[in-house]
Amino acid sequence: MSPLVITLLIVGGIVLLIAIAYINHMVENNRLERARIKADLNDRIRRNTELSETLPGQLMSPQLKHLLCRLQLHFQQGLLKVDKSNSACKARIEELQKLIALGESIPVSNPPQPVLNEAKAKDIRFLLEGLHAQITRGAKEGVVPASEAKHWLKETRHMLTQVHIEFFTNLGQQALQQGQPGQARLAFERGAQYLRKQQDPAPYQAALKTFEAQLAKANAMVLEQTKPSTAEPSELTEGLKNLDDEDEWKKKNIYD
User: Does residue 88 come out as left (phi exceeding 0), alpha (psi in the -120 to 50 range) or beta?
Assistant: First the structure.
């Protein structure tokens, strides 16, 4: 075998090894990319499903439920492309397609969740922030039309304001029921201030007037509580009365 042939065989072997290494590298990259895409799609599906199922009933509408189902369908279809044997994904796609076909007749079974404390208000605010993020990202990716995304982002801010109105109202009413008008006054004042700070306060004028009326009522109750009672003399009143009686007794002894 000539040196030339040996050289060619060596070069060919090296090229073959490089090609095999490159192919393996490409295969591994593709595998990692598929895994990344699957993880991202599953996360998007989970987030939208959670929003659809856990948003309070007072905030969920058929239109919003329809939007969330459409987002879920889009991501389920993307998942099926990279995981063609996923039977659960296929079943969910069929289910979502049937729900979306109902249009605004889509069922909404989310129960109302009264906003009775700060913890619940924070939980709902976190959900609304998640909704805002999903709509924003969906618009950037072309999943949600820009005009529709703009509408829902505005609605999300409105829903957050509704949550604050309900929270401050319930907080104030609870304080009144517990005989704490000072705490109620603080809650109603915070509610009124929150509405005054809105970029567009016009839609909330009725709620603002309600807060102002409740604030006036709570103020009156606080004043009533702090007003001295004439029926029950205070220690100072009793002390002054005793001093007057003592002075009267001294005067009587002097003149007698």
Answer: alpha
- How far is residue 168's CA from residue 127's CA, in Å, rounded to a whole number? 19
Question: From the CA atom positions of the chain, what is the Rg in Å?
Answer: 35
- Phi, psi for residue 84 in degrees, rounded to 5: -65, -20
Task: Say which amino acid occupies 251.
Answer: K
The DSSP call for residue 58 is T
118 CA to centre of own chain:
12
Whole-number pLDDT of residue 152: 96
Sequence spans of domains, the chain? 10-108, 114-227
pLDDT means over runs of 10, the chain (256 residues): 73 82 80 87 95 96 97 95 92 96 95 95 96 95 94 96 96 94 95 94 94 95 75 50 49 44
What end-to-end distance do the CA atoms of the chain give, in Å?
A: 153
The DSSP secondary structure of 94-132, one letter per residue, reads HHHHHHHHTGGG----PPP----SHHHHHHHHHHHHHHH
Look at the chain and count its residues. Answer: 256
Contact 131, 55 (CB under 8 A): yes
Structure tokens at 240: 């002054």
Measured torsion, CA atoms of residues 171, 177, 182, 184, in degrees rounded to the nearest 10: 30
Read off the tokens for 207: 């709620």
Contact 196, 208 (CB under 8 A): yes
pLDDT reported for residue 28: 76
The span from the CA of 71 to the CA of 165, in Å, is: 29
What pLDDT was estimated at residue 209? 97
Q: Give the pLDDT confidence score for residue 16 in this predicted structure.
A: 81
